[in-house]
């Protein structure tokens, strides 16, 4: 079974703080995606990383893909209440077509 | 473009019954995937359909089945419902590239409660 471990599961921080979410596997991904899901809605894609060592930035969000393509991180700078939500990483393996394997998710709450 | 739509949004059934959920993909998308989301297991892949054919299948019992129609709309069916089938069922549509991959756009889900 291919597993994606995401940590932490829960995070409650004050507005303005920084945070990092981690996504790890023992298997190599062909690509990894990060999603954000809000209550009553489906996940929305934030970014896709493909190349080992790749770093992508989306405003205050920074995504890194590990050199060996087995792990990834999401760093949020100066978190705001609008960042509150469920963050999910999802991996695509080379022999699995378009089938996504999701991590367990990180539920983030940013208090004003 | 309209997004992925799923019907119904909420459903309550009793054990032993069966249920059919519907998904209409984004216009032009021919790939539809289904996922189950529960607090304990998170998001798990059920199956993917492309051009009316099942391309991939997750590790779920045979009670879970699906199909896709010529207009790319998809349905999933769960027979002999169990309490553990209570979940949010998400549908995602994609426009696939030559490698058979593409960004997945998720619908809002169908919340199924089994009593």
What's the overall geometry of chain A? globular
Per the principal axes of the C-alpha atoms, what is the gross shape of chain B?
globular
Whole-number average pLDDT of chain A? 93
Distance between the termini of chain B: 37 Å
Biggest pleated-sheet summary of chain A: 6 strands, mixed
Task: Please count the beta strands of chain A (DSSP E, at least 2 residues each).
Answer: 11
Can you walk through the features of this model?
The complex is a heterodimer of chains A (112) and B (115). Chain A has 112 residues and is mainly β. Chain A has strands at residues 5-7, 10-14, 19-24, 31-37, 44-49, 55-58, 61-65, 71-76, 85-92, 101-102, 106-111. Chain A contains no helices and eleven strands. In chain A, strands 2, 4, 5, 9, 10 and 11 form a six-stranded mixed beta sheet that branches. Chain A has a five-stranded antiparallel beta sheet with strand order 1-3-8-7-6, with no helix packed on it. Helix content of chain B is 0%, strand content 52%. Chain B starts with a strand and ends with a strand. With 115 residues, chain B is mainly beta. The mean pLDDT of chain B is 94. In chain B, the strands form two sheets. In chain B, strands 2, 4, 5, 6, 9, 10 and 11 form a seven-stranded mixed beta sheet that branches. A four-stranded antiparallel beta sheet of chain B has the order 1-3-8-7, with no helix packed on it. The A-B interface holds A 40-45, 48, 88, 90, 92, 96-105 and B 4, 31, 33, 35, 42-45, 48, 55-56, 58, 90, 92, 94, 96, 100-109.
Features of the shown structure:
heterodimer; A: 112 residues; mainly beta; 6-stranded mixed β-sheet; 5-stranded antiparallel β-sheet; B: 115 residues; 7-stranded mixed β-sheet; 4-stranded antiparallel β-sheet; 52% strand; globular
